[in-house]
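## retry 2 of 3
previous attempt timed out at serialization; input unchanged, resubmitting
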Amino acid sequence: WLRLKLIADIGLVGLPNAGKSTFLAAVSAAKPKIADYPFTTLHPNLGVVRVGEGQSFVLADIPGLIEGAHEGAGIGDRFLGHVERCKVLLHLIDCTQDDVAGAYTTIRNELEAYSPELAERPEVVALNKIDALLPEQVDEQVAQLKTVYDGEPLRISGVTGAGVKKALAEVSRHLGIIAAEDGEDENADWSPL
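## retry succeeded, writing output
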């Protein structure tokens, strides 16, 4: 038996309904199923993201993980097997939920319990759905997340595109690809095609 060890360059991880499929649809030509109920995504969806002239990477929308995923809850052990086959993780957290710190900790604990090596992969953390909150509410969520996360989380919206270029630039940097960030070329129309 042969087993494919690399499914994608970047893996989108997070709790169910964190906006992973919406983000994938926003940055690639992929057409994943998007709905407002948990476990809309049951299998990884892949999309090619073009970040510059002749520069691209493969992004995988991994089904949502829940507490106990490493033990098979919500068939999470299968989902974690897909995560294991990605080089870099883009961890999306729904900033409209009450406990963003708990959401971050749940996913980090599941990654660590499944494989300590997986927990050491490069990770970019982003608060998603910022379009649904006032700026001061987003600031409060960032402050809450920073109680358990040492870095500066990105602020993005897969729906409006806010912060998306910056997120793509950050994950590209981990892959050794140079990509434009938000504000570098404000007049350029960006498209996943």
